[in-house]
Amino acid sequence: MDDSICQGYEKEIQALEEEIKLLSEKYEEIQQESTFFSDEEILKSIKSFQRDTQGETKGHESPSDLKAQLESLQTDLSFLMKFTGFQFTSHSKKTVEKTRDRTVQKHRLSGKCHSLSFQLEFQLLRMQNNEKVSAVVSDLSIIMESRGDSDVSKFVSSTEEHGNLLTFFRSLSTYAEWHEHRRCTFQHFK
Predict the structure, then answer these.
(1) What's the order of all strands across the beta sheet hosting 116-129?
(2) Are the beta carbons of 132 and 70 closer than 8 angstroms?
(3) 110, 120 Cβ separation under 8 angstroms
(4) Where are the domains of the chain?
(5) Beta-carbon neighbour count of residue 133 at 10 Å?
(6) Which 3 state secondary structure label does DSSP give 58?
(7) One pLDDT digit (tens) per residue for the chain, 190 residues
């Protein structure tokens, strides 16, 4: 009977150790995310926040001003979505590596451009030398509904190989716009 009690306690201890390990990993991830910004950037943000809140207490920005500003931002966002055709549905970011002058983040982004859905996954390496900041995209992976179009498949492969996000978004915008026109035209003749 003593052995069965000991085995029960050992199993419970192992379960607790595993839970501690998982919670420790989760805590480290949260710490990495919070250390994305340098101490100087955090201090600047705190000072800026304090100035903003002091201005609010002095009555510089009333709730109606904030509401008007929010409506203006929503109008601008709506305009940009109509103008470019892009509508982002989700974005996630995870810091993989963080040092004083180098940060590696993994991004996952999904959305639609007109009627074409897309998903991107890439790593962004940010390096800071003195006051210069450079960013390099790597490990780009694009998932898109090509609907059997070999040109789109070739374009996606080439973009993944070169890691050029700007070219991808520009080309996708143009292609999706004309794809939408073709779809409407064919729909008209059906």
Answers:
(1) 86-98, 102-113, 116-129, 132-144
(2) no
(3) yes
(4) 86-189
(5) 11
(6) coil
(7) 577 788 888 888 888 888 888 888 877 776 665 555 556 666 677 777 667 666 555 555 677 888 888 888 888 888 888 888 888 888 889 988 888 888 999 999 888 888 788 899 999 998 888 778 888 888 899 888 765 677 778 888 888 888 888 888 888 888 888 877 887 888 878 7
Tokens of 113: 């451009």
Q: Between the CA atoms of 100, 102, 108 and 112, what dihedral angle is there, to the nearest 10 degrees?
A: 110
Can you tell me which residue has the tokens 């805590």? Answer: 27
Tokens representing residue 87 in the block: 């509508």
Question: Considering the entire predicted model, what is its pTM?
Answer: 0.56
Q: Cβ atoms within 10 A of the Cβ of 137, count?
A: 17
Tracing tokens 């920005």 back to the chain, one arrives at 61
Q: Could you tell me if 126 and 106 are in contact, meaning their C-beta atoms sit under 8 angstroms apart?
A: no
Q: Tokens in use for 182?
A: 């073709």
- Per DSSP bridges, beta strands 102-113 and 86-98 are antiparallel
